Amino acid sequence: MSLKTITPALVSLDGGAAGDKSDVIRALAARVVAEGRASDADALYADAWAREQKDETGLPGGIAIPHAKSSSVTVPTLAFARLEPGVDFGAPDGPADLVFLIAAPADAAEAHLAVLSKLARSLMTEEFTSGLRAARTPEDVVALVDEAIGEGDATASATKPAAASSAAPEAGAALRIDGRPARIVAVTSCATGIAHTFMAADALTAAGTKNGVALTVEPQGSSGYQAIPQSIIDDADAVIFANDVDVREEARFAGKPVVRSTVKRGIEQPDQLIAEAVAVAADPNGARVTASGGSSTASAATNLSWGANLKRILLTGVSYMIPFVAGGGLLIAISFLPFLGGYGIALAHGTSGMNNAVYTLTHFAIWNLPPEGLGYYLGAIAFEIGSVSLGFLVPALAGYIAFAIADRPGIAPGFVAGAIAVFMNAGFLGGLIGGLLAGYAAWLIGRPAVPRWLRGLMPVVIIPLGASIIASGLMLLILGAPIAWLMTQLTAFLNGLSGAGAIFLGVILGLMMCFDLGGPVNKVAYAFAVAGLAAQTDASFHIMAAVMVAGMVPPLGMALASTVLYRRGFTEVERENGAAAWLLGLSFISEGAIPFAAADPLRVIPANLAGGAVAGALAMAFGVGSRAPHGGIFVFFAIDPVWGFLLALAAGTLVTAFLVVGLKRFAAPRIVTRAAAEAEHPVPATVAA
Predict the structure, then answer these.
(1) According to the model, what pLDDT value does residue 688 have?
(2) Where are the domains of the chain?
(3) How many other β-carbons are positioned within 10 Å of the β-carbon of residue 500?
(4) Per DSSP, which regions of 540-664 are E strands?
(5) pLDDT band for position 300 (50/70/90)?
């Protein structure tokens, strides 16, 4: 039998002074761990607090719902505190006296997430909140919550995704269009998809009923969602997007007047949102959902500054481009194995102008093997497939940058602009600029409202055609040549680096790789390295090696420190993470060090930076080159000299490990025992009772 979501031991009623919201969240997290439902109170608190920092979870009516998905949670859990006096969680009407901590495993099943979502919806009803305030015992609270979330006999119903909900219009409705009740559709979604998503859906539904509006809501939660029928969307006068994340399949709403807001405003100001939707429906110049869907663009542009939005766009392109490079680069690396083609497979064949791989594939076949034998022929196949895959680097980068701006209609013009950048020898810089041009051209073409009969042609014909002409035309006529000249100068500069200049570049790349462990800075350094591999020059191989070895240092350094050098300075969970980090580090997965950096950033990040800088500098000093873009120690056959790579890796790992141990021992050591933790962070009496 599965454990219940809430038990009396997880309930606290009316204790003493509560402190601030951080104390309340920390104490509730401790309760969850004490009941064996999570492995690490600090980790659960950190995840819930990170969510709280993004958007405060206080709601009107004295309610707060701090919540998180966390890898430390093993059982989906609700912990409840009734506070006296209340604590400020950021609600507009004052402190909260009813606080639920919603703790879900990082990989929670849809059924569990749906159960937790039911609680959030119940909190919107006066009957439920009044019952919580009147409850005399923890058992009374558990009974109320069990009934609200359908625990027991009703649990099976929770396995279905939340369906779109509708509000029927009342007679004499005030919000009317052309003499009839306004027809509105809405989509709600929050970062975790557990609480705010469904609370906003219910608040809008109730407000729609009160205002006499025919309103249909689609809550897009983590437990799934049921799409609003297209016929209802087509008949709607306007759409409300109350979202903190991108709307899924936003192109369904193309051409509709739109009001955009945060999901929290959908909870707190549903009446105002509905009034704004009715107003924008009557305004011929009001905002519209673009024909391209704009799921990546419109919502991002609404919620992000231009700088943050540009970063999101570029990183989207890099993220989609990397698989092309990783797969192609590894195939090329495999072709260099001694029992296959060896490094000679890439060399020019006599005066033919071909490399040996192309020559082999055009002059021989599986039934007519070259003199070198079957292994050499298979090496030629691997090299050529890898080379073709690597050739998609710039077009894929440009295509998915455009996708990040204009959604699917931007992909084709982005790929074309990237291919033109390759034709002009403008390299990855040309791909960046071409992708931005194509994306914004597609976005602008898709903005105007068009007749319904034309909407079907917009994303598949008109937008790709127009954006391709604009972006690729500008690249060919104006921008391509100067970008190509700039790339030539950059390549010459990198090829000419030696001595102190090369070592300094290694330090910079090492610092970038270790700063945010898979974040934007890390990805910029990695993208710079893999983009250079397309040139297949010595400088590009050296840069790739420095980036790879530096990226391996943080997880290996943390593994060495937590499992060998200073075990008592780390929690049990961190030691378990350290054991896993050995393999992650050897595989060049920098994210293996993230749990350590998140728990103790002021000591872990400087140690990572120092080790990464040492590793990157030594790799450059030893002239290490890597023809593989990924794989770590497991692509040793594509690294030359291997001894230099291993020495740089060992030095960087030791620097990081010894530095983090020294910082933990002598720079305000972190308290790891439970008794000491409680002494450092006293549990509020109102929650500890």
Answers:
(1) 46
(2) 8-156, 165-289, 307-488, 497-674
(3) 10
(4) 625-626, 639-640
(5) very low
CA-closest candidate to residue 181, choices 231, 228, 219, 238: 238
Set 67, 196, 630, 681: catalytic member: 67
Q: What is the CATH number of domain 8-156?
A: 3.40.930.10
Longest dimension (CA), the chain: 92
| Averaged pLDDT score across all residues of the chain | 79
SS (H, E, C) 250-316: HHHHCCCEEEEECHHHHHHCHHHHHHHHHHHHCCCCCCECCCCCCCCCHHHHHHCCHHHHHHHHHHH
Fold of 165-289: Rossmann fold (3.40.50)
DSSP characters over 323-382? HHHHHHHHHHHHHTSTTTT-GGGGSB-TTSSSBHHHHHHHH-BTTB--TT-HHHHHHHHH
Instruction: Tell me the pLDDT tens digit for each residue of 432-454.
Output: 899 999 999 998 888 887 776 77
Which residue in the block uniquely carries the two structure tokens 């099943």? Answer: 109
* Active-site residue, selected from the candidate residues 190, 514, 542, 630: 190
Listed residue (113, 99, 627, 125) closest to 345, CA to CA:
627
pLDDT single digits (tens) 46-76? 888 887 877 778 887 888 888 888 888 888 8
Q: Check the CA dihedral 74-123-198-99 and report its sign.
A: negative
pLDDT of residue 291: 55
12 φ/ψ angles, rounded to the nearest 5 degrees = -130, 130
**Is pLDDT of 35 > 80?**
yes
User: 515 pLDDT exceeds 50?
Assistant: yes
pLDDT tens digit sequence for 452-486: 677 777 878 888 999 999 999 999 999 888 988 88
> In angstroms, what is the C-alpha Rg of the chain?
29
- pTM across the whole model: 0.52
| 3 state SS of 176 | strand
Give yes or no for a cis peptide into 284 (omega within 30° of 0).
no
Type and span of the H or E element at 82? strand 77-87
- Residue the block writes with tokens 């910079």: 508
**Cα(438)–Cα(410) distance, integer angstroms:** 7
The CA-CA-CA angle for residues 150, 151, 157, to 5°, reads 50
Whether omega before 641 lies within 30 degrees of 0, making that bond cis, reads yes
Predicted confidence at residue 199, as pLDDT, reads 74
Is 67 among the residues known to form the active site? yes
Residue 525 — very low, low, confident or very high, per pLDDT cuts 50/70/90? confident
Q: Residue 349 catalytic?
A: no
